[in-house]
């Protein structure tokens, strides 16, 4: 499950940098170890106006990262913030 966690962190961080960046502002990455061996990954950015897209078209140039997150994470979602949004995923470590 360590590889799954690495992929989820990389995908959510890459999405924040690529799609959620506002000049002069960064994104925030939080890793939380929850009870029962669950890792919670939270990536916050300042672009609340951008909705997430799950692309399943094999001919598309990109957009399949959230499909990967869906497969690897136990659960995931989006929380709105005062400025921007937080995309989170929970991965079982055992």
Summarize the structure in words.
The protein is built from two helices and four strands; from the N terminus they run αββαββ. α1 (2-19) runs antiparallel to α2. It is of the alpha+beta class and 94 residues long. The protein is globular. 28% of the residues lie in helices and 31% in strands. It has a four-stranded antiparallel beta sheet with strand order 1-2-4-3, with helices on one face. The relative contact order is 0.26.
| N-end to C-end Cα span | 7 Å
Task: Let me know the largest β-sheet.
Answer: 4 strands, antiparallel
> Could you tell me the number of beta strands?
4
Number of helices: 2
What structural category characterises the helix and strand content? alpha+beta
Based on Cα principal axes, name the global outline: globular
pLDDT average, as an integer?
A: 86
How are the strands of the biggest sheet laid out side by side?
1-2-4-3
Estimated radius of gyration: 13 Å
Spell out the key features of this protein:
94 residues, alpha+beta, 4 strands, 31% strand
Write a brief caption for the model:
This protein has 94 residues and is of the alpha+beta class.
Task: Summarize the helices and strands and which ones pair or pack.
Layout: H1 2-19, E1 28-34, E2 38-45, H2 65-72, E3 75-80, E4 85-92
Antiparallel strand pairs: 1-2, 2-4, 3-4
């Amino acid at each position: 499950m360590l590889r799954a966690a690495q992929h989820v962190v990389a995908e959510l961080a890459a999405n924040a940098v690529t799609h959620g960046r506002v000049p002069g502002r960064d994104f925030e990455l939080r890793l939380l170890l929850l009870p029962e061996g669950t890792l919670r990954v939270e990536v916050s950015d300042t672009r609340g106006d951008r909705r997430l897209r799950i692309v399943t078209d094999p001919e598309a140039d990109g957009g399949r990262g959230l499909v990967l997150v869906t497969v690897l994470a136990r659960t995931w979602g989006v929380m709105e913030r005062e400025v921007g949004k937080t995309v989170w995923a929970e991965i079982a470590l055992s």
